[in-house]
Amino acid sequence: MSEHVKISENCDHCGELIISPHQFILNGNIKRFCCSGCETVYQILNNNGLTDYYELKKSSPVKSSPIHKSDESYEYLDHQEFLDKYATCNSNERKLDFFLEGVHCVACLWLIENLPKVSRGVINAKLNMQKSIVSITINNEGSFSNAAKQLALFGYKPHPVLNKADVEEFQKKEDRKMLIKIAVAFASAGNIMLLAFSIYSGASSWFTSQFNLYSLILFLPILLYSASPFYSSAYNALKNKQLNIDIPIVVALFLGTISGLVSIFTNYQHIYFDSLSTLVFLLLSARFLLKKSQQRSLDAVDIASFFTSKTAHKWNEENKLFEDIHSQFLKQYDLIKVKQGEMIPVDGIVIDGHSSVNNSLLTGESIPSKIAKNDYVYSGTINIDQDITVQVLNINEQTRLGKILTSVENGWNQKSDIVTMTEMVAKNFVFIIFTIALITLVSVYLITGNIEDSFTRAFTLIIITCPCALGLTTPLALSLTLGKLAKMGIIVKSEKIIEKLYNAKNIFIDKTGTLTNGKFTVSNLNNYNGEIWDNLSLIYNLEKKSKHPIALALQEYVESEFLKNGLQINVYKLDDYLEIPGIGVSALIENINYSIKSSKNEKNNSQTCIALYKTDKPILEIYLEDQLREDSYEAINQLNKFGISPKILSGDALGPVKHIATKLNLLKSNYYYRVSPEDKSKIVESSNKAIMLGDGANDAIALSKAYVGIAVKGSAEISLRAADIYLSQNGIKNVISVIAASRETIKIIKRNIIFSILYNIIGSYLAISGQITPLIAAILMPLSSITVLISTLVATKNFRKIFANILIS
Amino acid sequence: MYILIFLVPISILIAFSFVMLFIFATKKGQFDDLETPAFKILIDESNKVNQSK
Fold first, then answer.
1. Mutate to test the interface with A, among B17, B27, B43, B52 (most CBs of A within 10 A)
2. What one-character DSSP code corresponds to residue A366?
């Protein structure tokens, strides 16, 4: 009798749908996972008694993603030089901060803060949910590299925060001082208001003069202490002969105090202490809220620095081995090893080894060049073939790449057009307002002859007008978006890119791996010449070094076929190995030229066909299939809805490309096949405002020439050299997310600007016509700032939900 | 009514002491991270790590 075992469709760790029933372990019940990463994490949690994690996760609204096995090395974290510079030391303990990707719920918080239970030597792990930064304290037994590895294993990729330790301390102290100033302002303002209320309600003049005196006393702490940020800001601006938005406030404070003092000594009724104290309190609060909001996310420069070249393998003469250090500590004449597949971090000369390097970033050529002893190599190129030892000649900005890319690197923090425009308006704003205030003062006096009324109107005008949305919230919206995207694993180099995404008109998408799963499977073989097992061995040897999806598929296929039949794969020695990205590989084996590339046999099949050539004669044909991703169709629709015209660029043959394009409803003019990397860049360049989606290493030229370049595969450090955006997760989903986020952000900014303009116009009119008092103005102005600020915060808070809804609808 | 002359300064004194308490709490770092404690309330005592196996 067969039992019906209920098999769950979803991974027991991350909840994703299980496509290939990958692993399962027996635990009394069968647990199924989508990948070995999730299985590993489940085992660790189980062994350490941490399965409450799954209970907590149920309350989280956000799904987590499958665990990606990362091959990143964290050994450089233990190096003494690194620790001295970036870790804080307290007796036996050391503390270091890490930015974590993928933190989103209370289960994450719980798991991360339980790190001491799992990782030896870790005393404390304190997570700040807002910033996604964890502070790890270790004792002498522990090491940061172990802690980092453990966090990466759990699915939270860590990046050490390279701020000097004391910057953080300084920021904290500044924030505390600000809080105290606000508290003092609030206490004073509140009490002054209580007294002012009674005066407004008609207290007799004896009380009035007494309460005026009390108000003055209460106002002193604000005048002398709480308002100091405005004084220093105004002073700095005036020193540079410029006007800024704090100057009107200082002027208002000054005028208000003087007129208040005069009132007290001449027993005149009207004082402004209530308005001014409320103004200072509300303004300080708004500014503080703004500052805290900006601290929620690291700015573009910080985030980008996480993904630049970190590990270098330096030769240690004393210990006679290569040790991992952070690449910034390299000095001239150091010896380093650059492993196969790694980016060369410096300019240097090859001391040992021979290999080939991908120069596409420097020369624009996709064909790799060979290097051997005594050849020069340059920073930013990728070592393809074999490990080499290099002597460092130039580092960092002195490298050839560094000089070439100076303008590009300045793009790390390029200001967007909107921000530059708003800054200009803000600068002139104050001058304009003062002029209008003066005109108001003079003209009202001339018309009515009442000095007090004209003074009040001008005073109110100065208080109520504010370019807050322009100067303050636009940068905030942009930096919040960048931060939120970073937490989702989407790295955007600068704020200007968000604006560009809003304006983009076309998008070129790489077929393999983006629209398709990128997992080729062998569907058919045609053997023309020679023994099939020999040919398969040849293929295996040729494809061993390549990371192209086809190469990986072939390796897997050959391995499993040989395993099935209990055979051994022959190992051949390769000479003159050459991989041309996107085209194929070739090498000399026993003096005969073998190559693997697209089959010349164009049957317009919907499947990819490649062939093994022996001196240009095909001896084995292989048909490969790659499945369309399930979210691709929806994504293309979404792109059309955005008004961005999608096009496919692929090095693959007409057959498979046309097959995919038809499935996605793309017209004939919207797909390109058999495109080489040089062609890609020409096509992208000539297209109007085109986004390019491609491989960070192989499409570097096209990515750098595109209006916006998005890299979807490969290592972050290599990709970010050429591309503007790097997606650490595969698939087209995140592309839609980042475009949607940009549009949302620009919409928010436009909304805020319109609101600000309307507010200023209406406010100015009310002030000049004398319809509102300074007190009302003092409340309205910060209120408008806070409104704009809160609407920005709320709108960006909902990004995740927006993305989820877009893909469903 | 003239008792107010006495009462108002007293209320100011009370306000002052509250401000001092706030300053004390701020210096001790209680207001540094306002977001994370909000998440921590979702964690029950029963979610403590199971030591015995």
1. B43
2. -
Q: Which residues, 6 or more positions from A735, have their beta carbon under 8 angstroms from its beta carbon?
A: A507, A514, A635, A693, A710, A712, A727
Residue A304: predicted pLDDT: 62
CA-nearest of A483, A495, A337 to A420 is: A495
Distance (Å, rounded) from C-alpha A79 to C-alpha A98? Answer: 16
- How far is it, in rounded angstroms, from Cα A159 to Cα A144? 11
Q: Which of A693, A752, A770, A792 is nearest to A296 (CA)?
A: A792
The contact set of B with A (CB < 8 A) is 4-5, 8-9, 11-12, 15-16, 18-19, 22-23, 26-27, 29, 31-33, 35-36, 39-40, 42-43, 47, 49-51, 53
Task: Find all residues with CB under 8 Å of A169, minimum gap 6, and list them.
Answer: none
Rounded to an integer, what distance in angstroms lies between the CA atom of residue A144 and that of residue A80? 12
pLDDT band at B45 (very low <50, low <70, confident <90, very high): low
pLDDT of A183 reads 93
**Cα angle, residue A647 at apex, residues A653 and A552 outer, rounded to 5°:** 45
Instruction: For residue B31, give both structure tokens.
Output: 């207001």
What's the CA dihedral at A498, A504, A510, A515 to 10 degrees?
A: 80
How many CB atoms sit inside 10 A of residue B8's CB?
Answer: 18
Give the pLDDT of residue A407: 46
SS3 of residue A169 by DSSP = helix
Cα separation, A581 vs A697, whole angstroms: 9
pLDDT at B18 over 90: yes
Residue found under tokens 């040989």: A562
A180, A225, A234, A784 from A229: Cα distances, Å: 13, 9, 9, 20
Among the listed residues A398, A393, A397, A344, the one whose alpha carbon sits nearest the alpha carbon of residue A371: A344
On whether the CB atoms of residues A338 and A392 are closer than 8 A, the answer is no
- Select from A47, A51, A56, A211 the residue whose CB has the most chain B CBs within 10 Å, as the one to mutate to test that interface: A56
Beta strand A133-138 with A645-649: parallel, antiparallel or unpaired?
Answer: unpaired
CB-facing half-sphere around the CA of A566: CA atoms within 13 A: 0
CA distances from A694 to A511, A701, A731 (A): 9, 10, 11
Any long-range contacts for A256-262 (C-beta under 8 Å, 24+ apart)? A256/A459, A256/A774, A257/A219, A257/A223, A259/A455, A260/A212, A260/A215, A260/A216, A260/A219, A261/A216
Locate the DSSP E strands across A266-397: 311-316, 321-326, 335-338, 347-352, 355-358, 369-371, 376-377, 382-383, 388-394
Residues of chain A with pLDDT under 50: 1-6, 407-412, 809
Q: What is the pLDDT of residue A186?
A: 93
Give burial (CB, 10 Å; 0-12/13-18/19+) of A685: middle
User: Rounded distance, CA A37 to CA A44, Å?
Assistant: 11
